[in-house]
């Protein structure tokens, strides 16, 4: 953190390659994608992949590098009413951070082959976390505006 400006600097740890070059042709969520992509991890971070093969799913944090200027009120892709940006997963956000949970299919040195991609080709990756169901799965959740759209 730069204390003079209260801004954070993020260094990409790699790049995500996907078949998507047009935002209008992408899945709207990782859970609705069966597409395969790959992550190329930058050399200084390869050692951090040790043990990643033992996980079936990964949480990816990345930059919406092609997103336009944000708005605090947006229409979610699955609704026709405006809501606050922090109540949906719209890509035009104040800090352009994206999150997806993907399936790890294979690791080959600094390359991870993943399934469930929902981001543009060339997306900068800023972090990977393992998906651990004991930590990441919640019961009895309220889902706000999406409750009238959710399927049982």
CATH class: Mainly Beta
Strand order of the largest sheet: 1-2-7-6-3-8
Main β sheet profile: 6 strands, antiparallel, barrel
Identify the CATH homologous superfamily.
YaeB-like
Q: Which bin fits the share of residues in helices?
A: under 10%
Q: Sum up the overall morphology in one term.
A: globular
CATH architecture: Beta Barrel
Distance between the termini: 43 Å
At the fold tier of CATH, the topology name is Elongation Factor Tu (Ef-tu), domain 3
Low-confidence stretches: none
Beta-strand percentage range: 25-35%
Number of strands: 8
Overall description:
- With 152 residues, the chain is mostly beta strands.
- The chain has one domain (14-132): Elongation Factor Tu (Ef-tu), domain 3.
- It is built from one helix and eight strands; from the N terminus they run ββββββββα.
- The protein has one helix at residues 133-136; strands spanning 14-17, 36-41, 57-63, 73-74, 83-84, 97-108, 111-115, 123-130.
- It has a six-stranded antiparallel beta barrel. A two-stranded antiparallel sheet has the order 4-5.
- Strand 6 and strand 7 form a beta hairpin.
């Amino acid at each position: 953190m730069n204390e003079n400006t209260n801004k954070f600097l993020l260094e990409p740890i790699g790049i995500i390659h996907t078949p998507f070059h047009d935002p209008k042709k992408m899945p709207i969520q990782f859970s609705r994608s069966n597409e395969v992509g790959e992550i190329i991890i930058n050399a200084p971070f390869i050692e951090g992949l040790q043990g990643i093969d033992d996980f079936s799913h990964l949480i990816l944090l990345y930059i919406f590098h092609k997103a336009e200027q944000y708005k605090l009120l947006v229409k979610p892709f699955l609704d026709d009413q405006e809501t606050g940006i922090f109540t949906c997963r719209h890509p035009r956000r104040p800090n352009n951070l994206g999150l997806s949970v993907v399936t790890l299919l294979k690791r080959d040195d600094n390359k991870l082959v993943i399934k469930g991609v929902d981001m543009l080709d060339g997306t900068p990756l800023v972090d990977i976390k393992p998906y651990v169901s004991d930590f990441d799965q919640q019961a009895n959740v309220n889902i706000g505006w999406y409750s009238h759209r959710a399927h049982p």
